[in-house]
Specification:
Length: 237
């Protein structure tokens, strides 16, 4: 789950930003969470870990550019997107390695594109690539972030991915050794799941964002739910 900070002193603009985030989360079934701050001082003093920050330029006491300069002294990775009334301000954003800016008044259409770009950038840092020797004779290179889950049946692996379904000979244990550090976990002996793509857990049933339903085994449930809770609670990629 990616964690987003909204630093905005205007109640109206803050409401617009968070409404866009809520719509994005619902429509795209994304696992994102956010927290709001009224000033740069509040945000800097919180010392919370965030993957991204929507940072208003005209803030009381310390403006957005000054805050971004301080942020960069201790965090070179956080994605900064400025929120501003003036498009010409974008020229200065390179000074703090900001990804982009959004013009006020904030609209969902403006937010959607920039948020998607930011999430892709964040997630690409937390991925590895796999080469699948597909059973049809072809070779496929795919990012771990594009894999929903891997299923094993005998010595055949079935990859369910954003690019389609692929098959390969191998063992699930071999793939788990590679992918568990990239937020994959086994929900039972047959499935290795990308925690990013879990939509809901209902008892022993696991609903994936692509609509597939998987089963959590009783022996694996405690460990699996613990890994999922840790992933969501810490806001990992």
């Amino acid at each position: 789950m990616e964690r987003i900070a909204v630093v905005e002193d205007s109640p109206g603009e803050k409401k617009a930003l968070t409404a866009c985030l809520e719509r994005y989360r619902t429509q795209k079934r994304e696992s994102i969470a956010w927290a709001c701050f009224d000033s740069a001082f509040d945000f800097l003093e919180s010392r919370e870990r965030f993957d991204m920050v929507f940072l208003d330029i005209m803030l009381p006491g310390m403006n957005g550019m000054e805050a971004a300069q301080k942020i960069r002294k201790y965090d070179s990775e956080i994605i900064i997107i400025f929120v501003t009334n003036v498009s010409s301000f974008a020229v200065r954003s390179y000074e703090v390695n900001a990804l982009d800016y959004i013009l006020k008044p904030v609209s969902y259409e403006r937010m959607e594109f920039k948020l998607t770009k930011a999430l892709l950038m964040i997630r690409s840092r937390c991925e590895t690539s796999l080469v699948i020797n597909n059973l049809d004779g072809g070779i496929v290179r795919i990012s771990s972030g594009q894999i929903y889950y891997i299923e094993v049946a005998g010595h055949r692996l079935r990859y369910c991915t954003e690019k389609g379904i692929f098959y390969e000979k191998g063992t699930l244990s071999q793939k788990a050794e590679i992918l568990e550090q990239y937020n994959f976990a086994r929900c039972n002996a047959c499935y290795l799941v990308n925690l990013r793509y879990i939509f809901a857990v209902n008892g022993y049933n696991l609903e994936m964002k692509n609509g597939d339903q998987l089963r959590i085994s009783q022996p694996k449930k405690k460990e699996f739910i613990g890994k999922l809770a840790n992933y969501m609670g810490q806001g990992k990629c």
